[in-house]
């Protein structure tokens, strides 16, 4: 097997990392930027809600298919070629979306965007693991967390403001020049810091991976809209599960797997993955439930609902690099435990919100919750990646990103289903109670008052469903807290990218 070895970095390539950061930021920002614009797109292209939802679902599916393959791409191609290709695809997709004359063109443009963005996050993580020594990785990954968490949080607020004042196409027009400039700078400034190996892509593994992860993501993402008894939901989940089992067994038998599942033999990586999955599910509860509560029940505008979440995004942005430095000094366990306690307490208080909870109270609770979560995700993930030998970094980053995509989709679907079931049951109970208590005079109520009563019952029922789901999220976060007590600080073993053992003298050379 031929190899291309890159020498160990003596100087951290900050310029290169800055370019990767900007590329990753606009790519992640683009994931949430379009959500508030969906009604305007429906109106312009005369499509229904099911069709327009594919602008988000399709984007996520392409990510779910390509992220597992990113380990292969990172090992096979140079950093510069890979980033240039990914950024070129993202830029092309953004341009096509901006000028899209029909819905089909816009959907294809989103798919092209997703093909580029899927590679950027794993590539950035892998470059940072290679470029920074272990004692500085916490601070570096803290900056990475700034991109990963802040971009999707800012998206709804920025999108809400743009949609109120401009056309939805402006969402792409703003991103396009940034993408073009990033591509130009990358052509001149980008260097290669990670090693490459002349490995071959196993086509069968790629097909199984695409069917497995794509099927699970589509099935669980569609459950909230179509219902669990719809053939497309349970059918794609079953097919995806079977394909994923076959894919995993195949990888375990291969000498050069597309995605290395044997990295779970490292206990801290396995533990960090488990905690990240649980936290992803808990984190999605607020991202899904808060907009429903704020806009549907309370009638607060999309712009104001986005502003409600903005302080939390800013706090997470400020805390990410600080948390990284604290991780370098104290390790992940103390940060994760403290952060999860804050997360659990604030999530519990969210389960107690009412029809007249003050806007300022919601802002404070959400901001404190984000403050707590800023201390958990990146330290836990970095601690797990630190235990992997260097040659497994591409597989570790690909596995983490894949698990977050899948757990986020599954968590969202399950939480929405639970909320809907509780809402329906409570609405029936309240309606029956209202009928029993209705007096003879009330029976003569006008259609308007009956309509108001129906809306009141629906809002109270939905609030009950949201409260219960937040309480369930509290219990889920508690599981993560229990797991966090088992975190141990680790140092990576000194192994070459090829998998062979080398001694300290060899590393120094």
UniProtKB/TrEMBL annotation:
Keywords: Cell membrane, Membrane, Transmembrane, Transmembrane helix, Transport. It comes from the Bacteria. InterPro entries: EmrB-like, MFS, MFS_dom, MFS_trans_sf. The chain crosses the membrane at residues 12-34, 54-74, 86-108, 114-132, 144-163, 169-188, 200-219, 231-249, 269-294, 306-327, 334-351, 357-378, 466-487. It is a multi-pass membrane protein. It is found in: Cell membrane. This is DHA2 family efflux MFS transporter permease subunit. It comes from Lysinibacillus irui.
